[in-house]
Structures are given as structure tokens and as C-alpha cells.
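=== RUN LOG ===
request id: a7f3
mode: sequence -> structure
chains: 1
length: 292
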Amino acid sequence: MNIKKWLQSNTASLKGKTVVITGSTGGLGKEICKILGFLGADLILVDRNFKKSSAHRQEIISRFAKIKVTLLTADMEDMDSVKAVCEKLKNIKFDYLILNAGAYSIPRKKSSFGYDNVFQINFVSQYYIARTLAPLIKCRDGKIITVGSIAHNYSIIDKNDIDFSTRKKSNLVYGNSKRYLMCAMYKLCKDTGVEISVVHPGITFTNITAHYPPIVFAVIKHPMKVIFMPARKACLSVIKGVFDSCEKYEWIGPRIFDVWGLPKKSMLKTVSEEEYSFISSVCDNIFKPIAH
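=== RESULT ===
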């Protein structure tokens, strides 16, 4: 896979454009930023760890001296922090919002708003940011790019346990939160007219997949590197999402079994209309109390 050749054929200069990206210091986030920097985009990095984010900023500007990189701090587990960063972003001109932050296997607890923290980080906070900023993004002819996951296939929603707080398996909890987020973006597009792209990197070797016990991870990490795409290639699905929009139930990801190859747009066939309607109603029920 020739990345430079693909970029020449599928992208254009982003000079003069500004991209906000959550979760920029992770393996996938860093690679996304490298390509955006290469294309000339100014960046606004939204991360919870200011020290890591500052180091990442230095890496970017040392490589791409002509772009501007701004840091904003927000913890996706803390709704007050998320609301504060949204207020700051309302006063900053930007064109694209990439919702890339995520958490998989972390110590489970309830957030301050009462949701499982994995659900809070992957869905509630990301959706709040997108819905709050959607009118501004639409006015600027911008776009929201949402990083989904094939893990959404691992679970079907439970109306009696929305955030999967009773589940113990990380893949189910993570998949459920991504299922909500992806469907929420289709609804947001319908309600506001803002352009969206729902993308997924397949399975890639990043920190989010390094959740196994140390001994197990030491054994499997090398086969994983061979079997799954590295982040520098997996992130091309996200980059394609910057230049290509999705309609309802469309998403962009690796073309071979959703885990390997160049990105391709395809139909999402794993969510029923009943599920979509329920998630749509949950979105309103979650957003309105937080917004007021």
C-alpha cells in the first residue's frame, strides 16, 4: 500500500483549513495529525493530558513548521470539562471536527452524570461536542468525522441497560458505546443538515488494543503487527472521511473484511431501524439535561 500515492489521488491541500481532533495523542490520533499536517491543515488538539499533548505539539511543529497547532485540555470522562472546551471552541474558527478520543479496557466506574465511564467517554461526551458545535460547523461548510468501530458488531442495544453498566466484557461495553455514537451521527446529520462521515480503522495496533495482561500481550503483539494494519495505514479511513461524506448507514473503512486494505465506503447493515429509532430518542434524553 503506497500511502503517498493514495494521498495524491484521494486528498487535496488543506492549507487555510483548521481541524479539531479529540484524542490526538494516541497511536491513531498521532498518525492522523501527521497526514493533516502534511496536507497543510492547522490543528487544534483536544486531549486530557496536557504534558503529552504539549510534547505532541512540539513533534508536529518541528515537522511542519508552517502550520499552527493549538492545545485545548478536556477530559472526556468529566462533563464539566467537556462543556468548558465546547465554549472555547465556539469562539474559534475551525472547519472540521474529528471525534477520535476513545477508551476500551479501563477501570470501570460511574461518571458524574451517572453513566458508565466507557459509555461517557466514547459516546456521551463525543456526542455532546458534536451536537453543540454542529450549527457552527454547518455555517462554515465544515464536517464532523466520527471514528466508529467494527466492535459495534459485538453487541445489540439493551433498552434496560443503555450504557451496559451491568456487562463486564470490555468488547461488549466498548462496542455498545460505538454503536450509539455512530447512529447518533446519522441522526445529527438528519436533524441539523451538517455533513458527517462515519469512519473506522478496522483493527489496528495501537494503545487501545494493548489491553491484555502483560504476559499475554508480549506473546500476541508481534502476530498482531503482522495481521493488522499499522496506525499509519489504518488512519487513511479517517483522512478519507475528511474529503468524503456519508449518508445514513454509510461508513468508510478498510475494504477487505473491514480490517485490511485501502478505505472504501460501504453500507452498514448491522443496525436495525428499531435500534436506530431508540438510539435517536436516547440522544435527546441524554443531551437536553446536560445542556441546561
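=== NOTES ===
Residues 215-222 have pLDDT under 50 and may be disordered.
The domain at 3-291 is CATH 3.40.50.720 (Rossmann fold).
=== END ===
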